[in-house]
Design a protein that fits this description.
There is one protein chain. With about 725 residues, the protein is α+β, with helices and mostly antiparallel strands. It folds into four domains: about 200 residues, Hypothetical protein af1432 (Orthogonal Bundle); about 150 residues, Beta Polymerase, domain 2 (2-Layer Sandwich); about 150 residues, no CATH class; about 80 residues, ACT domain (Alpha-Beta Plaits, 2-Layer Sandwich). The chain is about 50% helix and about 15% strand. It has 28 helices and 21 strands. The strands form six sheets. Strands 1, 2, 3, 4, 5 and 6 form a six-stranded mixed β-sheet that branches. Strands 13-15-14-16 form a four-stranded mixed β-sheet, with helices on one face. The protein has a four-stranded antiparallel β-sheet with strand order 19-20-18-21, covered by helices on one side. The termini are far apart.
Length: about 725
């Protein structure tokens, strides 16, 4: 017996639960019949019965619930499933579409769906469902976490995002029923997140529809004015467009090209974006109409291109070959712009039937067109991008940071560059050699020190252009520079740089934590080497720590006090028996190269030879001040004995202020005196206090306090010098 869908959205044996008179009954019979006819074209009888059961289950679960428009709530999952049926998605995805709001809006659990319709359907429903907002501090944080969950579920199964995109499409079509502020917010997130995802998956018609709906709800007046202008232009240019269409239809057969010619109109959002980005008026946007030519094979594409260029003059610089170099979403076509009759610009796209299928349905063509030859390549690219989402997640535990990385990756790849071996890499416009290095491999990016673009050495922040040949120079001990975060464009590069810096930070903090803990143990008269592994295991069980490394990192970051950890470790241990509270505590030796775990305070700028003291600051690690720094007296924290390690060779920056008589050549004399002591001038600024006196502020590199004393002695020998003082605050720019 053939499966059938019920003829009504609501059961006939009991009346619908209508909260008030604003929700009159709505007949869904026509929608159900259309949906049933769609399913019958490609589903087997058993699968059709499962979809019918899912619909009935959803209708029963949502009984008495209504949308803002007044329609029964079940009309929404039905519309979502109908969109998926248009892509010929499988039974599991259709059932999940019909049930996608059941867990979120009713008392039905994920386990019940898994028991009734299978584990896969339940996982798809769970991937689409939102999280409980009560767990988050703000709406923005909740939304970011929702996006993160959805994108990670999509990385495991692409059907999750297809259901979500169909869900968002129907919500956008019914957005008039919600209040204006919510309407604009939903439209904005659709434009920023969902439309780019649709584009990235090759669902171009869906992407354009979401953009149009978002534009209409975000800027309703602009949308109406532009729609009216396009309608008027359509009448004015009808004759020209018709003339071009007939000319192309005659020309192609003459050149032996069998083709299907379609006219197309530029979308309102596309026109609006061009007017906004290029500061044009509507009358200046001439390429409102274009044509699409569909041929049987790739050679015919290029034959058609030659025929068109012989018919109308091409516009220089407007030709793009996306067949030889496909876009990141596997879109392929030839794009050209021509000068038509009366000087009218004409945009033309030329593609094969198979390319047209992929351009229209993207990743959904996997279900819609089973015989499409390029599907394996499309699936490979899609899988690679989805896998990159998992890589981004592993690199970032922060939800907002993860979403930021994803947004970087959602914009179309516009720049195509070559590796030294001739491989083509697609990168976002504005990408740099650092982005290129991380696109090749994370190790190449982490060890990058320089680059060559087209065989010329260029800065790493140089923006790449189409056709550039890029070669990365690496060094074994190189590491990422935090400044790279200011100009990289890909989410992968940003995530890898932050992951490396975070790991480095933790390693340095763990090293510092081990030194601080050792100091605390020696202060109790215990050799750190005497702390056994069993002592650490007992302590970790009692404090709930994950590992010894994590505890040491927390000590280095100032989140745990070393003295307290030392006492806990000694409780009940053999090493603690001989502990002495009065034992001398050894000082922590500062090298100045510890990295982010040890910071030299900017308020007093200590250098080797200065008496110093350390303060443990939560989240900052160990901050080193001079002993007479006024700031340290006001600060609260755990003070630590520190001292300079002997034999430090690295340079330290110090600021001095020199008051001189305002005479010709005095700056040259001062610079010579400084250079005589082998010191480098990093910065110099000048402030004229009066007509006779000038104040010069130097930032110098010195090795220690004795080196600074020799420089000051040389400067005092200059006759024009009135007074010299060392400045311990950071100079103002």
């Amino acid at each position: 017996m053939a499966a059938t869908l019920p003829s009504s959205a609501l059961p006939v044996d009991e009346p619908p639960i209508i909260p008030d008179d604003m929700h009159p009954p709505v007949d869904l019979t026509e929608d159900l019949a259309r949906f049933r006819d769609q399913l019958a074209t490609y589903l087997k009888e058993d699968d059709l019965e499962r979809v019918c059961a899912a619909y009935q289950f959803s209708a029963d679960a949502h009984r008495g619930q209504f949308r803002s428009s007044g329609h029964p709530y079940v009309s929404h999952p039905l519309a979502v499933a109908e969109t998926l049926a248009g892509w010929h998605l499988d039974t599991q995805a259709l059932c999940a579409a019909l049930l996608h709001d059941v867990v979120e809006d009713t008392a039905i659990s994920k386990a019940e769906i898994a028991e009734r319709f299978g584990k896969t359907t339940a996982e798809l429903v769970d991937g689409v469902s939102k999280l409980d907002r009560l767990e988050h501090q703000s709406y923005e944080e909740a939304q970011a976490e929702n996006y993160r969950k959805m994108l990670l579920a999509m990385a495991r199964d692409v059907r999750v995002i297809l259901i979500k995109l169909a869900d968002r499409l129907h919500n956008m079509h019914t957005l008039d029923a919600v209040r204006p502020d919510k309407r604009r917010r939903i439209a904005r997130e659709t434009l920023e997140i969902y439309a780019p995802i649709a584009n990235r998956l090759g669902l171009n018609p869906l992407c354009r529809e979401l953009q149009e709906l978002s534009f209409r709800h975000m800027h309703p007046l602009r949308y109406q004015v532009l729609a009216k202008a396009v309608k008027a232009a359509r009448g004015n240019r009808r004759e020209v467009v018709s003339k071009i269409l007939h000319a192309i239809e005659r020309r192609l057969p003459e050149c032996g090209v069998e083709a299907q010619v379609q006219g197309r109109e530029k979308h309102l959002y596309s026109i609006y974006r061009k007017m906004r980005d290029k500061h044009l008026s509507f009358s200046q946007v001439l390429d409102i109409y274009g044509f699409r030519i569909i041929v049987k094979d790739v050679p015919s594409c290029y034959l058609a291109l030659g025929a068109l260029h012989g018919l109308y003059q091409p516009i220089p610089g407007k030709f793009k070959d996306y067949i030889a170099i496909p876009k990141a979403n596997d879109y392929q076509s030839l794009h050209t712009a021509l000068i038509g009759p009366y000087g009218t610009p004409v945009e033309v796209q030329i593609r094969t039937t198979e390319m047209h299928h992929v351009a229209q349905a993207g990743v959904a063509s996997h279900w819609l067109y089973k015989d499409t030859q390029s599907l394996p390549e499309l699936q490979r690219k899609t899988h690679k991008w989805l896998q990159s989402l998992l890589d981004l997640q592993s690199a970032s535990n922060d939800t907002a940071e993860f979403l930021e990385h994803v947004k970087f990756d959602l914009f179309p790849s516009d720049v195509y560059v070559f590796t030294p071996r001739g491989k083509i890499l697609a990168l976002p416009r504005g990408a740099t050699p650092v982005d290129f290095a991380y696109a090749v491999h994370s190790d190449v990016g982490n060890r990058c020190v320089a680059c060559q673009i087209n065989f010329e050495s260029m800065p790493l922040r140089t923006e790449l252009r189409n056709g550039d040949r890029v070669e990365i120079v690496t060094a074994p001990h190189a590491r990422p520079n935090p400044a790279w975060l200011g100009y990289v464009r890909t989410g992968r590069a940003r995530a890898e740089i932050r992951r490396f810096l975070k790991t480095q930070h933790n390693e340095e903090s763990a090293t510092l934590g081990e030194r601080l803990l050792g100091q605390a143990l020696r202060g109790l008269g215990v050799d750190p080497a005497m702390i056994a592994a069993l002592d650490w295991e007992r302590f970790l069980r009692s404090c709930g720590g994950k590992s010894k490394s994590e505890v040491l990192t927390d000590i280095g970051l100032g989140k745990r006090l070393p003295a307290i950890i030392a006492r806990h470790l000694l409780e009940g241990s053999a090493a603690g028996a001989g502990a002495s509270e009065e034992s001398r505590r050894g000082a922590i030796l500062i090298r100045g190269t510890e990295g982010v775990a040890v910071q030299l305070a900017a308020c007093c700028r200590p250098i080797p030879g200065d008496p110093i003291v350390g303060v443990i600051r939560k989240g900052q690690g160990l901050v080193v001040h001079t002993h007479d720094c006024p700031v340290i007296i006001k600060q609260r924290g755990d003070w630590v004995d520190v001292d300079w390690e002997p034999g430090i060779s690295r340079p330290f920056e110090v600021v001095i202020r020199v008051f001189v008589a305002n005479q010709r050549g005095v700056l040259a004399k001062l610079a010579a005196a400084i250079a005589e002591e082998q010191s480098n001038i990093v910065n110099v600024s000048m402030d004229q206090e009066s007509g006779d006196t000038t104040t010069l502020t130097f930032t110098l590199q010195v090795s220690d306090r004795q080196h600074l004393a020799r420089i000051l002695r040389n400067l005092r020998r200059v006759p024009e010098v009135v007074r010299i003082m060392r400045c311990k605050e950071k100079p103002k720019d």
